[in-house]
Write a structure and sequence with these properties.
Structural class: mainly alpha
Number of helices: 1
Oligomer: single chain
Largest sheet: none
Helix content: over 70%
Distance between the termini: 120 Å
Number of strands: 0
Order of helices and strands: H
Length: 90
């Protein structure tokens, strides 16, 4: 009977050690996953911020194109009126 008791105690000790090791590894993996999640959140913030900046740049570019086209049209009209006033025709 003593043999079986010793055997069970030994198995219990080994199982406790095994469970402790699995628990330690689980904590390590959980910590690493937390760090990875934090890193991905930072990267996602940078990507989203960059996308917003590019969208604003595209909107600014479109507004600038419209303004430039309007100015070019106005300069062309003024040039034609000036040529007409000076008596020079194309």
């Amino acid at each position: 009977m003593e043999f079986f008791e010793h055997l069970f105690r030994s198995l219990e000790g080994e199982m406790r050690q095994g469970f402790a090791e699995v628990n330690r590894q689980f904590v390590e993996v959980n910590t690493r996953l937390t760090h990875m999640n934090d890193r991905l959140d930072r990267v996602g913030g940078l990507v989203n911020g960059g996308a917003r900046a590019i969208a604003r740049l595209a909107e600014w570019s479109e507004r600038t194109d419209i303004t430039t086209a309007d100015l070019l049209h106005r300069v062309t009209d003024i040039d034609q009126r000036l040529r007409k006033l000076e008596g020079k025709k194309d």
